[in-house]
């Protein structure tokens, strides 16, 4: 158990309890080929509605052009720390528009596949941090994302570095207490807002 471990009212799997989103990555770490493929396989084997697999991923390792292009598309706040990660993965969903109405399914499924990649990273002893702070049009243009596909998020993956190496503002966030909305305000039964009557 680390100081970042989630405080839960009943035990949850350590992979879930210990996952968190750091910003301090070791800029000297490089990802092995097998680790990389393992992350991608975890995403590829996600479930999806009708097994449509509406996701695609653009994958850049630190030092290559894809990494730089994804990094360039991040907002400056995210660039400030994500540059030290070992891997940047842009998750892209194939859009599904029916009768002029964009369907939520592809985003749901792509988020799920991304979550599997994130958890696999933690299972390998790495860390992952998802971001929505990026310019989707810039990413589209620099990486040639075709019409009908929508960049949804970017995930930074790498090895954890000490929080002390971050600039003060980021260091504060890195060590802040992790919080969640209480169980009673999140899970309802009978009617909306009525807490589920469970006690651990
Ligand atoms: C879809 C998504 C987008 C996010 N975007 C950003 C972001 O742009 N920049 C950032 O620093 N963190 C971002 N985060 C990280 C969240 O702030 C973080 O997951 C949340 O505070 C909970 O912390 P934890 O992951 O350590 O439990 C994002 C997370 C998700 C799932």
TrEMBL record:
The keyword Aminoacyl-tRNA synthetase does not apply. The keyword Metal-binding does not apply. Coiled coil: none annotated. Keywords: Oxidoreductase. Residues 17-63, 78-158 form the Nitroreductase domain. Pfam families: Nitroreductase. GO terms for molecular function: oxidoreductase activity. InterPro entries: Nitroreductase, Nitroreductase-like. Belongs to the nitroreductase family. This is Oxidoreductase. It comes from Streptomyces gancidicus BKS 13-15.
């Amino acid at each position: 158990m680390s100081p970042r471990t989630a405080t839960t009212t009943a035990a949850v799997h350590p992979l879930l309890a210990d996952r968190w989103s750091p910003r301090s990555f070791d800029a000297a770490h490089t990802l092995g080929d097998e680790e990389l493929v393992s992350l991608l396989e975890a995403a590829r084997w996600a479930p999806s509605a009708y097994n449509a697999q509406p996701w695609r991923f653009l994958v850049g390792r630190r030092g290559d052009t894809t990494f730089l292009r994804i990094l360039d598309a991040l907002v400056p706040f995210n660039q400030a720390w994500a540059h030290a990660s070992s891997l940047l993965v842009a998750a892209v969903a194939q859009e599904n528009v029916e009768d002029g109405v964009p369907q939520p399914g592809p985003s749901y499924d792509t988020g799920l596949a991304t979550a599997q990649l994130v958890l696999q990273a933690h299972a390998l002893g790495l860390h992952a941090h998802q971001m929505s702070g990026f310019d989707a049009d810039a990413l589209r243009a620099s990486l040639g994302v075709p019409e009908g596909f929508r960049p949804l998020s970017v995930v930074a993956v790498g090895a954890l570095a000490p929080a002390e190496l971050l600039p003060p503002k980021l260091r504060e966030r890195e060590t802040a207490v992790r919080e969640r909305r209480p169980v009673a305000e999140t899970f309802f039964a009978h009617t909306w807002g009525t807490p589920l009557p469970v006690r651990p």
